[in-house]
């Protein structure tokens, strides 16, 4: 297995840094190839601007056509093309980060904004009466698996259906479905470490043990059963889920997961 770990935390001695190190050592000991994109150590540029697209940048700047033109011309910046090459090399991608303000750190979002360029991660495939492009279960990254390893500050009960923060599945849906599943990756259930700010040494050892166990089952873990866009579940071109396919009473994000 070839695994890319995209790691986003400014402190190497943090819980996130320790979990990243556990992943590297566990996977390497099991005979897998591992590469790490340590975004803070790389001093990753998080903002999209005209400099990303060289001579393909439009004036005034329109990000989507500039991004697609630069990708087609092989003119994206070396840092971006390097990360795209890593994604194409990998068959599994792990994202290790803290949940800050209910989402990923800005540096990781900036990695997505720049690396998931037009014609690479989106804007691929044909649009006709039966298809709406290759996305949500199809696309450039089809055949790869992705998983989030996320640390959160609060206890697990805060991230449930009646918890003040809402279900963790809902908070992660935009990342799972809108970023990872969109370009074709199969998304595995997340590994969530709760109470990150108050974790004792003993609790960390328990978390590290659970993390090792998850890592050694990456190849056999069933992915989240998101509905494929072009499989017949959605009306085209409205992309609304057809009536009667959901479990009675189910609403919201859960509509887009098969039973």
UniProtKB/TrEMBL annotation:
GO terms for cellular component: cytosol. Signal peptide: none annotated. GO terms for molecular function: NAD(P)H dehydrogenase (quinone) activity. SUPFAM superfamilies: Flavoproteins. Keywords: Oxidoreductase. Residues 1-215 form the Flavodoxin-like fold domain. Belongs to the NAD(P)H dehydrogenase (quinone) family. This is NAD(P)H dehydrogenase (Quinone).
């Amino acid at each position: 297995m070839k695994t890319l770990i995209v790691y986003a935390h400014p402190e190497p001695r943090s819980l996130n840094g320790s979990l990243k190190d556990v992943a590297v050592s566990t996977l390497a000991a099991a005979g897998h190839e591992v590469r790490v994109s340590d975004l803070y150590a790389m001093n990753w540029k998080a903002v999209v601007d005209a400099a990303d697209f060289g001579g393909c940048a439009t004036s005034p700047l329109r990000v989507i056509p500039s991004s697609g033109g630069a990708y087609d011309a092989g003119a994206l910046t070396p840092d971006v093309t390097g990360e795209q090459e890593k994604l194409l090399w990998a068959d599994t991608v792990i994202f290790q980060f803290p949940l800050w303000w209910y989402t990923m750190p800005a540096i990781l979002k900036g990695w997505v904004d720049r690396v998931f360029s037009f014609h690479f991660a989106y804007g691929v495939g044909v649009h006709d009466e039966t298809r709406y492009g290759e996305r949500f279960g199809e696309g450039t990254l089809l055949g790869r698996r992705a998983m989030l390893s996320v640390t959160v500050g609060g206890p697990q009960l805060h991230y449930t259906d009646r918890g003040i923060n809402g279900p963790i599945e809902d908070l992660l849906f935009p990342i799972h479905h809108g970023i990872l599943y969109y370009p074709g990756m199969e998304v595995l259930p997340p590994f969530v470490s709760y109470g990150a700010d108050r974790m004792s040494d003993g609790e960390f050892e328990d978390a590290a043990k659970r993390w090792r166990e998850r890592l050694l089952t990456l190849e056999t873990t069933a992915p989240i059963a998101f509905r494929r866009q072009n499989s017949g579940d959605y009306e085209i071109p409205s992309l609304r889920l057809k009536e009667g396919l959901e479990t009675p009473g189910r609403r919201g994000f859960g509509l887009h997961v098969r039973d």
